[in-house]
Amino acid sequence: MTFFAAINTTGIEPEVGPPAPDRIISGQPTFRTWNAEETAQGIYAGVWEATPGKWRIVYDEWEFCHILSGLSVITEDDGQARMVKPGDSFVLKPGFKGTWEVLETTRKEYVIHLPPQAS
Q: What are the extents of the domains in the chain?
């Protein structure tokens, strides 16, 4: 067993699809996700890409993002908008609600931690 996991999309078939139809605000965004790491504890890591469009986002999970390419605007429900571009890193915390608008096809590395399931 190795304890080192490279985030590499080579040989991984991406999951492809749009946001949920009821969340799309404009455009026809399509996602491609290369999930390179997944654990039973609800940790996911990989690469995500989206084509232009705008959709509603609601986070129950914690997500670290590092933008590799493209340009997007993430806007919280309170109206605070942030443009994200290559080199930017940030965390979206549980409870975040707003929109994600891709202006130029955007690719990011991500690490997601899902909350434990209530029993």
A: 15-113
Report the Cα 107 to chain-centroid distance in Å.
9
59-81 tens-digit pLDDT: 999 999 999 999 999 999 999 99
- CATH level 3 topology of 15-113: Jelly Rolls (2.60.120)
Angle at 46 between CA 6 and CA 78, to 5 degrees: 140
Give the pLDDT score at 16. Answer: 98
Can you give the chain as a three-state secondary structure string?
CCCCCCCCCCCCCCEEECCCHHHEEEECCCEEEEEEEECCCCEEEEEEEECCEEEEEECCCEEEEEEEEEEEEEEECCCCEEEECCCCEEEECCCCEEEEEEEEEEEEEEEEECCCCCC
pTM of the predicted structure, to 2 decimals? 0.92
What confidence score (pLDDT) does residue 119 get?
A: 38
